[in-house]
Amino acid sequence: MIDSATFRTAVSQQLLARLGQVPSLTAFVGLDGFVDEILHVVDKRTDSTTYTRVPTIASYAERLAAAAGKSTNIELVNVLTKLGGNGPIMANALASFGMQVTYLGSLGYPAIHPVFETFQKRAKVHSICGPGLTDALEFDDGKLMVGKHYTLKEVTWENILRRFGLGPFQENFGTANLVGFVNWTMLPFMSDIWETVQSDVCPRLKGPRRWLFVDLADPEKRLPQDIRRALGLITKFQEHFDVILGLNEKEAHEVGHVLGFECSGDAPESLAELSMAIHRAVPVNTLVVHPVSYALAVSAGEVSVVKGLVCSKPKITTGAGDHFNSGFCLGKLLGFDNAASVLCGVTASGHYVRTAQSSSVADLAKTMEQWPQS
Fold first, then answer.
1. What are the Cα distances from residue 336, in Å, to 12, 181, 199, 315?
2. What pLDDT does 109 receive?
3. What whole-number distance in Å separates Cα of residue 215 and Cα of residue 339?
4. What is the DSSP letter of 300?
5. Smallest Cα–Cα separation from 373: which of 38, 73, 3?
6. Quick one: 179 exposed, middle or buried, by C-beta within 10 A (0-12, 13-18, 19+)?
7. Which residues in the chain show pLDDT less than 70?
């Protein structure tokens, strides 16, 4: 595992040296969109404004289990209402780097929801239906995402054609330096959209190969045959793009299980072995896996493992993975190797959970140089 101040300084200097390239980079990302409510679960309330929060998922689970056969009352406190969804969060982070971003998704229709107002100022934003809603219960050791997804069944190829247009889709899909399709799990017709894009749009592509990023987004609830179909379609995109498949640790185990692979332990070496097996079965350009304390990338039979930027008391965790994805993709767009790109990813994620703000490229470089310890 790479954990070197010299390495971080070198990547920081590379970032600053290539800063001038970033404004010319373009991204076309979709197709989800959520309004996120960031919530704390109250443990003890002192008065009308003061409370202590339930600190961990385990302690929350104990409270819920104790209510079995009895019932109980749970109080949730809204800490923040913000734009949500893997796509908007990732695209917003890319725009914060200074890239030219076009977003297509479920942000409100016919009017875009006000929560995306700032995002609209940073990117070209288009929407084909209403957003999903997420209650994000945050704890010191993770988060529980409770979603309401009824609007997302309107994310279809037919609505893309009707409410965005084939011409604009072909133009953005066919020219962007980075195409991003994220949140496959929550979009019931995403595989159908991919299939149509591959048959009707990809054959018309011209010019050099570009990057395409895919994030399945916690596929546990989807059927194994649906996951295998999605992985096959993702692999097929490799005919036209250099494809990056992004997974967090839980997702890597889920995908591995569907493919018939099991991880032999919790050590980074075990996850690296599982990731290599997944990559052999899903032979895209790059597979990237990001646990909390480190991340790794696999290409051409080689794995790069880089220590992450761990925060014991995060200000926010919802969206940390999407910020990792934005940082990793930035690195690849700038021509970095996997190790340097992974460092960009863990730094973007670490900066976000510490500050609750997306970083600029200068922020990434500064954080690499100063590298907080907790």
1. 12, 22, 32, 29
2. 94
3. 19
4. T
5. 3
6. buried
7. 374
pLDDT of residue 46: 93
Residue with tokens 């920081």: 12
**Confidence at residue 350, expressed as pLDDT on a 0 to 100 scale:** 92
Looking at residue 262, what is its pLDDT? 81
Residue 339 CB coordination number (10 Å): 17
3 state DSSP class of 337: coil
d(CA 86, CA 92): 10
The CATH class, in words, for 5-38+82-370 is: alpha beta
pLDDT digits (tens, 9 = 90+) for 181-216: 999 999 999 999 999 999 999 999 999 999 999 999
- Enter the DSSP assignment of 114: G
This prediction has a pTM of 0.89
Q: What's the pLDDT score for residue 108?
A: 95
Count of CB atoms within 10 A of residue 109's CB?
17
d(CA 71, CA 63): 10
Query: Taking the domains of the chain in order of start, what are their residue ranges?
Result: 5-38+82-370
Distance CA 178, CA 184 (A): 17
DSSP assignment letter at 168: H
* 43/220 Cα distance (integer angstroms): 29
Element of type H or E holding 41 = strand 34-45
pLDDT of residue 252: 94
Residue 67: both structure tokens together: 């209510």
| pLDDT, position 142 | 84
Q: Determine the Cα–Cα distance for residues 226 and 186; give it in Å rounded to an integer.
A: 12
CA–CA separation, 65 and 69 (whole Å): 9
pLDDT tens, position by position, 45-55 = 999 999 999 99
